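hey can u check if this looks right to u? its 96 residues, i copy pasted from the old doc so theres a chance i mangled smth
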Amino acid sequence: MYLILEGVVRVVGRDEHGEEVEVCRLQSGECCGELEFINGHRTVADVIADGPVRCAKLNRRHFEMCMGPIVDILAKVGRENPKYEYYQVQLKKHAK
């Protein structure tokens, strides 16, 4: 998981034809990769720096140590927040 300290990143997925589609942009104070930790699977999109970016990396073990008590809340947000719509669709595709 990465916490963006400075800069902006683009989250890029693929449509049904394999073409890149921008899912969202993330900026300072936001994170990416948390849902992969929570749900225990590989990533479904790429994250591309949009200029200079500085971030902090958190490995799975440290994530679980820090976030253990709130993992259920984060999982619910990942299922219900429209921000994660692309992610939710990709999970359904991979589950089949």
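The mean pLDDT is 83.
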